[in-house]
Every structure is written in C-alpha cells, then in structure tokens.
Design goal:
With 522 residues, the protein is of the alpha/beta class. Helices cover 47% and strands 12% of the residues. The strands form 2 sheets. A 5-stranded parallel β-sheet has the order 2-3-1-4-5, with helices on both faces.
Length: 522
C-alpha cells in the first residue's frame, strides 16, 4: 500500500503560497456549513511513522481552520482509569459531537499494531481486531459520521534523515528521543504489520489515505485538500448512509414464543420470600467482596414492561451492596448532548471500573424496543443495532466485565392492575404517565420486538434471563439468585474473560416454587 508514498512527492514554495489562501477559505466555509448543518460529526485519524509530520499537520489544520470547532485527542499509554475498562472506552468518550471535527493523534489502530510488533498477539488476533474496528467504523458512518484516516509514510532512509533533521534543529530537538531511534530498528516490522492492518481496514466506508511525509508542503496540502473534498461531498449529499439489511420477517406458526412460554403463575409466599431474600442478598454481598472480583466488574441491565417491578428489584440488589461500590443509571429519552453522539455513547461513558457495579434501569436496548415500535429511528437503524449491541457486549465480556441482563415480564391484566394502583397511591402517582397508557395500546408490537431482541442478542457471554414478574417476591429472588450464580460461575471459571462459557443455565427454582418457566439462556 505504500508504493505511491515513496516516489518523492514535493510541492514548491510558489505553488504552496498560491494554493493555501483559497484552500483555507474553502475549509473555513465548509467548517461553517458543517456547524450549521449540525448532523455530521467528523473523525480524522492522523497515524503513521515517527517523524512523518503528524504533529506539524495537526498544527497546520489549526492555523487554517476555526479552532473553536476542532478538538484534538492525543492517545499514548492508557491511564490506570482506562486500563480498568474495555480498550475502546477511551475512544468512545472522545468522539466529537455532530457539527464538530475531532482529530485523533493516535487511535484505536495504535495499540494492536504495537502488540503485534512486540509479539503480544498473533496474526489471527490482529485480524480479529481489524474486524472489530471495521464494524466500529461502520457504526460511526451509519450514525452519520465522516471518518477520514491518514497514514503518513516515510522510507527507512527518509525516516532516519527526518529524525536527524529534527534533532539538529534547536526548535525541534526536544521531539526526538532515544525511544524514536529505538523504534527505527523495528521499521521493517512496522511496515509488515501496518501494511497488513491497513489493508484489512481499508473499507469503502472508511478508506485509508496514504500520504508521503517527506515534504511538509506536500503533506499539508494533501491532507487539507482531502479533508475539504470529503467535507464538501458529505455536506452536499442528501442520502443517509445505511448498511443494507434483509427485511425483518417473524412467523410463529404455532403461536408460541419465548414470552408465551413463561409461567407467570409462579409465586413466593411472604415467609419463604423473606428467608430467600436474606440468603441471596448475603451471598451477593459476599461475592462482590471476594478478592477475585477486584479484577472484574459487573454490569446489570434491567428491562421490562411498564410497571413490571424493575425499580423494586434494583432496590433489593442495591441493598446488598456497599453504596460506594455501585451506581444506578436511569435511562430516559436522550438529552441534546446524547443525541449528538452514536446511540451507544451514553452507555459507554457509564461503564464501571474494576471492582465496581453499574446498574442500568432501562438500557441500550431502547433502540430495538421503544425506538423501533414508536418509529423514533428507521428500520435500517434498529436492524443494525442488534449486531452493534452484540459487539458492545462482547467487548465488555472480553475486558472481564460480567454482563447480566434481565427482562421482567408481566401479563396485560397484572399491568392494568398495577397502573390503577399507582393512580390511587399518592407516593406512586409519579410513576404513571400518559405515555404508559399509550404503550399499552401497542402491547402486541412490543411483545413482537421483545422476542426479536431476545433471539438476536441472547449470547453466550451475555444471555437474557426472562423473569416471571407477576409476583414481585418471586421475581426479586430469581434476579438475586441469577446474579449470584452468574458471578460465582465467572469467578470460579478458569477461562479467559471474553471466551464463551460452556453453558449458561437458567436459575433453578427453589423447592417451594413450581418449575421455573423457560429462559433463553442457552
């Protein structure tokens, strides 16, 4: 991929001085258009070899464009806070909002290349990372982003000459250290690894631009003109990028599905409930104080029908924990800040550190439930969300996060009874809204969407647990028991975090319960 960047590209001073004023004016105009449009985030990756001009190019862009609408994120070694979360966490947090340009000096490409050069990962693992990155960038583009990727290239002799020139100039000598000279020794390895990685990630939706870094003027003009052309084309396009998807077709010929098979008659009397609640709360507290949990974290995702008892179940889970150990994140309609980012952004930012617990009261599944049913997003958006959510949860599991997901199911009759009760009880009235009544009118559409969600996102690493919630006592105990069994299994497992478990079994019914309803955990 580097042949065209080794032919000695150069731009004379006269041509450069003649080209820059018009280019700067056009870039500023495009930047204003981007801001006024307010729908397009721009992600610019600046990567390449040491001494190839990455920093100088970023400085030039700041001179040519309005810095108020630019942001540069520089990534080097992960901090302790970043190491305690999935590898992509720090990049998600740095994504630019719509209408802005984010320049990444170092990116999600840097670490896999380094790991491969140093022999920490195999070629097969590198290819898996490439596939993961391709899906991540496809998600950004499908969310409306413009992704531009620049790789600045130098020949081995050109890099050596460049480093010597920088080192001999008092104004730039500080930029060259022994570390840079040591890196020169791995030039051939970098060529092999980067060449392969760039080929694997050179996609139609986010292609690489290889730029020769020998001549400053050529490099600056090339990047500026490429950025301008891409901005103008994106702003002129009226068509939203969308991954091709097959039409959603669901047929339950015998009228049965994962929800219809749940036994909502399961109950638990007050006395055995009190005993079981104390038992499983104590066990949960014990597990989260286990020294082995300090190297893991826990994400609990609660979804369910309106009035299904999510809040009460969450309070019983929280009662078993140290308040300093967990955070409950209630999820409602996205804010303006959240709407300016990809739909998963607001969940990435709330992921817990090692030894901590994040509890989500409603979750990232809103895209395939309420947004799907209410028409808040297109069919292409919620169809691709299944794979994006699976990728998200796989990344969590791969980083050692234990993901436990609950769907609380109640009958229409029980929901109606609870709605009326809420209207009559003063301290519960705030829980019932006009929207809850409207959602009841779409019960069948929601049930349809829930079945699709379970089938498409109940995975080995993050299975769904369907909870029979007509009886709150039974539901709360099942949730606590499931949490304890999942955490214990993960802590006792010798498998590497992220690898698929042998099997994920549903929580067993207690002796005093009737047989538990079927749960799609396998």
């Amino acid at each position: 991929m580097f042949e065209s960047a080794e032919i000695g590209h150069r731009i004379g001073k006269a041509m450069y001085r003649e080209s820059v004023p018009g280019l700067r004016a056009a870039l500023l105009e495009a930047q204003v258009g981007l801001h006024e449009n307010g729908k397009i985030p721009v992600v610019v990756l600046i990567s390449g070899q040491d001494g190839a001009g990455k920093g100088e190019t970023i400085n030039v862009l700041y001179q040519w464009m309005d810095p108020r609408f630019l942001a540069t994120m520089a990534f080097s070694e992960p901090t302790d806070e970043e190491r305690e979360r999935p590898a992509m966490w720090r990049y998600w947090r740095a994504l630019p909002p719509k209408g802005r340009i984010g320049i990444f000096a170092g990116s999600w490409y840097s670490e896999p290349i380094r790991q491969r050069i140093q022999g920490e990962i195999s070629l097969k693992e590198l290819d898996a990372r490439a596939d993961q990155i391709n899906r991540f960038e496809a998600m950004l583009v499908n969310e409306g982003a413009l992704v531009l990727k620049f790789w600045f290239h130098l020949t081995k002799e050109g890099q050596k000459t460049r480093l010597k020139a920088l080192e001999s100039d008092p104004r730039t000598a500080w930029r060259v250290t022994q570390w840079n000279w040591d890196r020169l020794k791995t030039y051939d390895q970098l060529q092999d690894v980067a060449g392969h990685f760039l080929r694997m990630t050179n996609t139609p939706w986010a292609p690489w631009a290889i730029v020769e870094g020998t001549d400053d003027r050529y490099r600056s003009l090339t990047v500026g003109q490429t950025l301008l052309a891409a901005l103008q084309k994106k702003l002129a396009s009226k068509q939203k990028q969308a991954s091709p998807v097959a039409p959603m077709v669901r047929v339950d010929a015998d009228g049965r599905n994962v929800l219809s098979e749940i036994d909502l008659t399961l109950t638990l009397a007050a006395k055995p409930y009190a005993t079981a609640l104390a038992k499983w709360q104590g066990r949960l507290s014990e597990l989260l104080r286990d020294p082995r949990f300090q190297g893991r974290s826990l994400v609990c995702a609660f979804e369910g029908a309106d009035a299904a008892g999510k809040g009460g179940a969450i309070r019983r889970v929280g009662a078993a924990l140290d308040a300093r150990q967990y955070q409950v994140t209630p999820v409602a309609a996205p804010t303006e800040e959240e709407r300016a980012q990809p739909h998963l952004w607001r969940f990435w930012r709330h992921l817990p550190r090692l030894g901590k617990v994040a509890i989500f009261d409603r979750t990232w599944y809103g895209r395939v439930l309420v947004e799907r049913v209410e028409g808040f997003c297109t069919e292409a958006d919620w169809m691709r969300a299944y794979s994006e959510i699976n990728d998200f949860e796989h990344e969590l599991a791969d980083a050692g996060v234990i993901v436990v997901k609950f769907w609380l199911q109640i009958s229409q009759e029980e929901q109606l009874r609870r709605f009326k009760e809420r209207e009559q009880v003063a301290f519960k009235r705030f829980k019932i809204t006009d929207e809850d009544w409207r959602n009841r009118d779409k019960w069948d559409a929601y049930q349809h969407a829930i079945c699709d969600m379970v089938e498409r996102t109940s995975t080995g690493n993050a299975p769904w647990t369907l909870v029979e919630a007509n009886d709150k006592n039974y539901a709360r105990v099942k949730i606590l028991r499931t949490l304890c069994e999942r955490i214990a299994a993960e802590l006792n497992s010798k498998r590497k975090p992220g690898a698929l478990p042998k099997a994920a079994k549903p929580a067993k019914a207690a002796k005093h319960d009737k047989p538990a309803g079927k749960s799609p955990k396998n």
